[in-house]
Amino acid sequence: MEPSLTKRIAQVREQLSDSGLRVVDFLALHPAEASVFSAQEIADQAGVSDATVIRTVKQLGYGGLGELRRAAAAMLNQVRDPEQTLAENLTQSDDSSQLLAKISLDAAHLARALPRTVPAEAFDAAIKTLATASDTLIVGYGSAEPAAMAMSLGLRRIGRSATATALTGYNFADALGQLGPRSALVIIAPLRHVREQDVAISEAARIGCPVVLITEMLASHFADRVATVLVTPSTDDLLPGPEIANLLLVDALILGVAAADPDRALDSWKTTNRLRADIVGGNLDVPLHRSTASRAAQPRVPPDSR
């Protein structure tokens, strides 16, 4: 099976020049146009020469512009079937003794690739959006829900107002009703495009609320409708799903927002620690002395055997 355009971009991104990066960023965000544009039209949109476009196409491993166009067109209807993904992963999991090593190596690959797929300008723009927002609503469904919850908790712990939701259908209206012009909307949508995302983006546009999108495969679907797109590395042919990259990116964003106002972040944690101590009436953690650990490790003898 031929690697997708998204995967090819991730594989060669580190070797590309600045002008080559502008070309692949255009291809990733605008596959509909890339599927029909000439080299000169792509060059005009990316702000490079047509020779740079042709050179980048070859670096991506395509024989010519025609092959690139077909790959870009394939991106438009690209949907990853969870059942098929599991079936493919099982073919790599027949040796259980190597399974942990394999998934760890794949996770390390995702971590190394993340700085290459998220340009510094986009990352900084996302931090600015979150740091200046009066409140943030984070939307994540399915496997994206843990990252949405982690972002909401992390932002609240550094003194920011944040809410995560996985509500669907008409119940989702209750969450969207919280948005205002000074809010920020974060949508974590690695693979699946659902109607709730469209409605959320439209509502944010109506009230003037900036949107940050975190995605693996949907950048081209939403790029023209959101303020900032953060593209995570492709998980094609890897055992881990998008969750690892999502959580790493969320952690980095939270730290970036905290660094934008460190006094506010530290004061918030100080308040949290004080409240925790008040609630439990002292030290939050049970001290684990050697004697305690030793007793806990001793096997329990059943009462009827004494």
From TrEMBL:
Recorded superkingdom: Bacteria
GO molecular function: carbohydrate derivative binding; DNA binding; DNA-binding transcription factor activity
Leader sequence residues: none
The HTH rpiR-type domain, residue ranges: 3-79
InterPro entries according to UniProt: Homeodomain-like_sf, HTH_RpiR, RpiR-like, SIS_dom_sf, WH-like_DNA-bd_sf
Sequence intervals crossing the membrane: none
One Pfam family from the record: HTH_6
GO BP: carbohydrate derivative metabolic process
Protein name: RpiR family transcriptional regulator
Organism (species): Herbihabitans rhizosphaerae
